[in-house]
Design goal:
Oligomer: single chain
Distance between the termini: 9 Å
Order of helices and strands: EHEEHHE
Radius of gyration: 14 Å
Helix content: 25-40%
Number of helices: 3
Largest sheet: 4 strands, antiparallel
């Protein structure tokens, strides 16, 4: 089992809009690709006082690295583009891949 984790810090002025869009539009589109078995979304509780946003971890679980690689090639570019265009200059994100051991 592979965990595809996306950590996003969204500017506080756009947090509510972003979270609604993620839950209502983006995550359903990612899941509709058929690559992922389940997903979870978490909010970081121990933000630093100087942070002007909220940090979230969006987690997608996939059976194998091969499937994740295929998703990255075939589906991710368009989905990431939609996110980047909608919330341009309002977020930072990074992605990590973790293997269940």
């Amino acid at each position: 089992m592979i965990l595809y984790n996306i950590t996003v810090n969204i500017h506080s002025d756009f947090e509510e809009e972003w979270l609604q869009w993620m839950k209502g539009k983006h995550i359903p589109k990612v899941l509709a690709t058929g690559y992922f078995l389940e997903h979870k979304i978490f909010k970081l509780l121990n933000e630093t006082p100087d942070n002007d946003g909220a940090t979230y971890s969006i987690q997608y679980f996939v059976e194998s690295m091969e499937e994740l690689n295929e998703y990255q090639i075939k589906e991710a570019p368009q989905l990431q583009k939609e996110h980047a265009e909608r919330f341009k200059d309002k977020f930072v994100a990074f992605r990590t891949f973790l293997e269940s051991v």
